[in-house]
Write a structure and sequence with these properties.
The chain has four helices and ten strands. By secondary structure, it is α+β, with helices and mostly antiparallel strands. The longest helix has 19 residues.
Length: 266
């Protein structure tokens, strides 16, 4: 910050209405020339309007619609893909499309704040396959340059190529809908996820969301049956239903089940 002036904190005594009043007065520190990077950060932090609730802030409205992947990396069953989206300092993730495999759909909208719309011009997209026993596997990624016409008020609905183990732009493509907008931010910039304001429905009209029924495929049952020949197919089907069709989760439960049975029998 630099040296402080001698009068940075001083006591002032004055008489008012016959009473002696003592106050503490703070003088501002002198301006100090900062390196360009620090100066930019200081300028952003010195704008209190960015931190006040309800003030509009520029940002990108990004809809992560769907993707088409050229290869499934699941060893058993199907992939369970989700997307990690990063713009500047803001990162968010979609829900996992269970059994989405090579044709996942999300249709999620995110508002990504832009403190300075001239410095952030790229969107980083990563697609992961969610795992239950190991770390999630990144199967595809892309660094997308935001088209200039987005900042001129146009909405862009395009497919962008994905890279990965198959090679550059050879992993498939992802469909994004991008527009430039302003909306009130809930708190300070760089918050992880920002949701648009929605009017809450009255309690008496609330309808609980019932998850769609899970379709258990015969090929998944047969695959697991080959791994656990002593386990009845009905048991395998019940475990798959409890895991909502997640083959890896079902295998993990059956491993635990058979291990417990072996321990009891011994």
């Amino acid at each position: 910050v630099g040296p402080l002036p001698p009068s940075f904190l001083r006591l002032e005594t004055r008489t008012r209405d016959g009473e002696t009043v003592t106050t503490v007065r703070a003088e501002p520190a002198p301006q100090v020339d900062l390196p360009p990077q620090q100066r930019t950060e200081r300028q952003v932090l010195s704008q209190p309007e960015l931190y006040q609730s309800g003030n509009p802030q520029a940002g990108l409205s990004i809809t992560i619609a769907q993707a088409v992947l050229n290869k499934s990396y699941a060893m058993i069953g199907n992939m369970d893909p989700y997307v990690r989206l990063t713009v500047g300092h803001t990162t968010c993730e979609t829900f996992t499309h269970s059994n989405g495999d090579k044709n996942p759909r999300w249709n999620k909208v995110y508002h990504m704040p832009l403190p300075n719309n001239t410095s952030i011009r790229t969107i980083n997209v990563e697609i992961f396959d969610e795992k239950s026993l190991t770390d999630d596997l990144r199967v595809a990624f892309s660094k997308i340059n935001v088209p200039e016409r987005v900042f001129q008020g146009h909405t862009v609905d395009e497919w962008y190529p994905l890279s990965g183990k198959l090679g550059t732009e050879a992993e498939g493509s992802i469909n994004l809908i991008i527009s430039y907008t302003t909306m009130p931010m809930m708190t300070v910039p760089y918050q992880r996820i920002h949701y648009p304001y929605l009017q809450a429905a009255p309690a008496q009209f609330y309808t609980p969301v019932v998850p769609p029924p899970v379709v258990i495929r015969d090929e998944d049952i047969n695959t697991i049956k080959d791994m656990f020949p002593n386990v009845e197919k009905e048991v395998i089907k019940t475990v798959l239903e409890s895991k909502r069709g997640n083959v890896e989760g079902a295998v993990a439960d059956l491993l635990q089940l058979t291990s417990d049975s072996t321990t009891v029998n011994s």
